[in-house]
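Standup, Tuesday
Yesterday: got the pipeline producing C-alpha cells again.
Today: sanity-check two examples.
Blockers: none.

Example 1:
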Amino acid sequence: MAVLSEAAKRGLRTYGMLCPLLPGIADSEEQVDSLVWFAASCHSEEVFAEAVNARGPGLRLCEEALLDAGWTAEAHALAAVRRRQGWSAYTVRLLARLQKSMRRHSDIDKLRFLLYPSGLREQDLASIRDDDEGVVWLGKNSSSATALLQPAAPSSVR
C-alpha cells in the first residue's frame, strides 16, 4: 500500500486490484469501504475486484491453516463459500458493498468486478443483473467482458 501511495504522489498511473476479497477476512462493509477509499485516494484509474475462486483445494487448505492458527470464525466463513449457495450469497453481498463504496468514494464507472455467472444461483444472478454497474461478465456469451478488458489501441509512434 505504501508503494501505491508513493506512486500516486509521484504522478504515476495507478490501479486498484482487490482480488480476492476473502470472506470473513476482507469482505465486511467497513473493510471494503477502507480498501476502496484507499484506492480512490491513490487516484486509481480502475479498481479491479472479484470474489474468491471456490474451485480447487486452495480454500480447503486455507481453511485448515486458519483453524490450525485459531482463526475459527474466519475458517468457517471460508468453508461457507465452498458450497454454491454460500458462494453465491457472498458474491452478491461483496458486489453490493463494492458498488456502494465506489459510488461513495470514487466513480462506479471505474469498478471492474470480474464475475463468472455460472456459479450463481438463479435468484442471485437476477439480483446482480438488476444492478450490474461495474460488473465484467466473464465466460461464454460474455462479449461485454472482451470490450471492457481490451487495452486501448496504442497511439502511433513517429
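Example 2:
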Amino acid sequence: MQRIVYPNAPNEIAMKLQVSHPVYCNFFTPHECKARWVEYLWGMEKKSLYTLLVHGSKRFGQALNGISLSWESELTMRLHLVAMTVVCIAAYFLEVSLFEWMVLFVLFGLVMSLELMNTAVEALCNYVQAEDHPAIKRTKDLAAGAVLVASVFAVAIAIILLGPKVWDLLQAA
C-alpha cells in the first residue's frame, strides 16, 4: 500500500489516517487533506460547540474530583501542598523574579502531577490485587520513586533559587 502524506501532519497521524481513509491524498485538494486531518484529531466526528463544552466541563469536574480524592486519601498530597504554600510565602517575601516564579510553578505542577499519578497507580494496584504480590509492590514502589525523585530535585532547585536570597537576608540581619 502506498503511503499517504498529509500536509503538516506527524507521521503517526498520517499512518492512522491511511487506515481510516484509504483513498490517496493525491486525489484531494490540500484543503480537503487538512480537513481530514482535523477530523481525525477531533475523533472523526463533527461535534457542536455545545457538545464540546458539556463534555469538557464534565471532564473538568472529574479531574477536580480526582484532586479532591487525592487530598482526602493521601497524606503526601497534603504535605506537598503545605510545602508549596510555605515556598510561595517565602518566595513572595524574598521578592523572586518572574522567571523564578515560573520555575517554581513548573516544579509545583510536576510534583503534584506525579503525586496524582502515584495515587492512581496505587488505587489501581489495590483494586487488581488486594493482597501482597511482588509485582504490585514493585509497581507501587516505582510510582512512589518517581514522586520522590521529582520532590528531591524540586527541593534542590528551590534551594538554588531561594538560598542566595535567604543568605543575603541573614547577612544583612
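Quick observation on example 2: Residues 80 and 90 are 15 Å apart (CA to CA). Residues 134-172 form the longest helix (39 residues).
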